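Write out this protein's structure.
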Amino acid sequence: MAKKFPKEKRVYISLGFQYRMRQMYDKAIINFNKALELDPEFSNAYNFLAYTYAEMGNYEKAIEYYERYASLSPGDANPFDSMGELYFKLGELDNAIDKFKEAIEVKPGFGSELNIAYIYALKENYTEAMKWIDNFITSNPAPGKKAQGYLWKGFYHLFLGQYRQSLIDFSEVKELMRLAGNDYGVAVATIVSGCVYLERKEFKLSRICFEESKVVVKSFGYSYDILACIQMLTRIDILEGKIDSAKSKLAVSEPLIFKLTEKNKYLGTHLKSGRNCLRMEIMLAEGDFKNAVALGEKPDSLEMVSMGIKDLIARNIPFVQDVLARAYYLNGELEKAIAEYERLITFDPTSNNRLLIRPKYHYRLAKLNQEKGWKEKAIGEFEKFLEFWKDADKDLPELADAKSRLAKLVSK
């Protein structure tokens, strides 16, 4: 096409995009610049150049091109949203929020509300997170869009121990997705409902959700979602003590991981990390604590790569990723377990990890601090956990245990 239509700028954009997807960044930049030679005010070229420089790690250049994109596209929220996502990846959370807010000022309901909500959740400010989700739902009357808001709402309610409300939210997602004619969206809502049942240890209901969803996503040919269902079914097997079945499912998942890794190395890193988590869970179930620790300590073994704020529901599944901390504890290394939990509850802007901090980490860290004899630290973490779970379902064992332990510590 480029040979046949050398004056067509969109051809060079398409060609540059193909090079960028293959990490052939120099050739991508050459083609995006060819488009600009034909039209110096072609805003889309600046957008793609910004993305390319961001992927290369040249963030200063990326911001420069996003700014040019914005100046050439008045009334377009996308450049501000893109800058917000870049600042998010850089760990500059307040700058990210500011840019996402600029996007909303240009176009309310654009979707940046969900990004702001995620950052507040990452800061463990769930009140603000819920407020921004409600803003998104109010600004988007279309069923498909509104469903996205309820999906995130259910996700955060799950984190906060409000499992019944979470299931109500996901049920709303299903209804809205059906109204939108989106069968895949219904399947996603079923997957996350399965995660709620898994948290509640209702394994039969959880298994039904993942089996049903696997059939639907398989009909679409979505390998990533098929793999997610297999991995969650593997987790159920482990929790039910069906270790041979779990090992068999892990073996089945390997070709899918290989296939997806070939397409996207960053996604591959995430998938391999999830696979290693399950391997470690199997080792812990078999009492092989030493080898579980060894696997968890391997470089990049449990690395979670930031792959875009819009994809992070998937990145936060499975929900509790403290397997190395638990391996340390079971291996008799209490201080290392405490240090690992401290790492999990501390946001590190220099890392690639943008996963949310599970409130349950505070509870588990508090118990370890109590065992170590660090009374004040234990009290602090129990109080944090109970504040997050102040509206949690009343019958949850963690809630009752945390209240009991805190009362005994305070009374001493």
